[in-house]
Amino acid sequence: MLSSNINQSAKKLTEQSSIELFNKIKFVNLPSNLSTQEIASSYAMEGESDTPMVLLHGFDSSLLEYRRLFPLLTDKYQVWALDLFGFGFSDRTVEQSFSPESIKTHLHSFWLKMINKPMILVGASMGGATAIDFCLTYPEAVDKLILLDSGGLTKKPIMSKFLFPPLGFLATEFLRNLKVRQSISETAYCDRTYANPDALMCAALHLECENWNKALISFTKSGGYGSFASNLLDIKAQTLIIWGKNDKILGTKPAHKFAQMIPHSKLIWIDNCGHVPHLEKAAITAQHILDFLECS
């Protein structure tokens, strides 16, 4: 559940979409072989359509990353924004290990309990790598795949496995620094004015979750997501790839590679847009998603 500190800090949110999505956050206790106890998992949901859409956020982020895109999709779809295992506001216990495999297992447990029908799976940045991994393992659960400036084509960094104390602690304290997070946010946008105080608050609220740093160290030591290049041909779902033309985080080469390697895919470029089209160009991104789903 959300702590009193998080609820208090959330009062500093100023953008209406941020406030509304934060107020929609709920928790469900998921049974899983990842833990002897049920895992309190955070999500937001709105919409009454029979077609579910699930939104997956990026690295060291939360479902609040979809604050602008979420309300633009709920008229036509049942939209779920989910915190990945070990990220966002989800429960993190010291005994658990966090890795791409455990994220996938947790996502499948959530799908089984809360959705249990083919879904439209949307992933941004690292969430795109999560979506690809899930789609390859559970093709029956994914009707359509949508990738937003997606990860999944980069080899695992070797040094991440050597984050022993105190290096792991120092790395997370570096990421906890709000000036560092502000700098990362500014790099993610083409128009840096989007990296405003509300955006920083959205990016920092989950830092107050218990064991945030330990979970992040655990995930990083696992090596994180590597490249799915050799497996992309096996993706059966029709796929939409949306990419900001001014992405300074991943660049633009991965967009072309995804379009070439994923069989039933379509690539859409967003002008004057950085790494986060769902935040910087939410209305345009939503329209491309809706057009793709209506025509496919």
Overall CATH architecture? 3-Layer(aba) Sandwich
Distance between the termini: 38 Å
- Based on secondary structure, the structural category is alpha/beta
Q: How many individual domains?
A: 1
> Strand arrangement, largest sheet?
1-2-4-3-5-6-7-8
Number of helices: 11
Low-confidence stretches: 158-164
Helical residues, percent: 25-40%
Helix/strand order, N-terminal first: HHEEEEHEHEHHHHEHEHH
The third-level CATH topology is: Rossmann fold
CATH class label:
Alpha Beta
Radius of gyration: 18 Å
Task: Outline the structure in words.
It is a single chain. With 296 residues, this protein is of the alpha/beta class. It has a single domain (4-295), classed as Alpha/Beta hydrolase fold, catalytic domain (Rossmann fold, 3-Layer(aba) Sandwich), CATH 3.40.50.1820. 36% of the residues lie in helices and 17% in strands. It contains eleven helices and eight strands. The protein has helices at residues 4-9, 16-23, 100-115, 126-137, 167-176, 178-188, 197-204, 212-221, 253-261, 277-280, 282-295; strands at residues 26-30, 39-46, 52-56, 78-82, 119-124, 142-148, 238-244, 265-270. An eight-stranded mixed beta sheet has the order 1-2-4-3-5-6-7-8, with helices on both faces. β5 (119-124), α4 (126-137) and β6 (142-148) form a beta-alpha-beta unit. α5 (167-176) crosses α8. The longest helix has 16 residues, at 100-115. The protein is globular and about 45 Å long. The termini are far apart.
